[in-house]
Amino acid sequence: MDTKKLILSTALDLFSKKGFVGVSVRDIAKLVGVRESALYKHFKSKQEILDKIVEKMSLEVHEVYKSFQAPEALDGDLISGYKKLSEKKLCQMVWNIVQAFTGQTELAKFRRLLQREAEDIRFAECYKAFFLDGVVKSQAKTFSALIKGGFFKKEDEKLMALEFYGPVLFLFQKLDLAPGCQEENMEEVKKLLYAHIRNFGQLHRAVENQREGK
Question: Which residues contact 137 (CB under 8 A, 6 or more apart)?
Fold first, then answer.
């Protein structure tokens, strides 16, 4: 890992544990193993480090969805992409995405940083964009397309997005807790997530698709 990437990774880890205000440039430089003056050759300030982390995480979110073959992140037709997914594959895809945002991944650390600093309007707005309003807006767009394509019943796509994402966000929080029994906790969350996806599909899927068993 080159120095610039190491600085960002180290800073994110420290920010998630101690908060943005609680970490100095000197703290970051010390863990990276460089002089404070050397760090400034890469970034002008701690704020610039944070800005670059936000930029990096924005790209990372898209890459996560793309790597797990989420139809909305691919270039193909959204409707046909979802119609090709079996329920089992859909559950596994969503579970893979949930795992990417939990545990000790950089996206999980970023999420915890934003939650930790939520009293600051800058962090609150960022959290809303990445994990609240931004997600609901994106999923509502997906549901709207699937409704028009006859995959789902005609309903309010924003309410559908809230109904689907609310329990997923709850499961994020559940995985953040009970670190001492993480394996057991992960299995419980996985079962709950799969049940949620199945129930959601049974409730909202168009009748013709239910008969086809998709």
Answer: 161
3-state class of 152 per DSSP? strand
CA nearest 53: which of 72, 77, 73, 28? 28
Smallest CA-to-CA distance from 82 within 205, 202, 171 is with 205
pTM of the model: 0.87
Residue 167: both structure tokens together: 């329990």
- Closest Cα partner for 200 from 82, 73, 71, 65? 82
Q: Which tokens go with 121?
A: 């309007």
Helix axes 87-100, 157-176, angle to 10 degrees: 50
Tokens found for residue 63: 């890459």
Question: Which pLDDT tens digit goes with each residue over 1-37?
Answer: 799 999 999 999 999 999 999 999 999 999 999 999 9
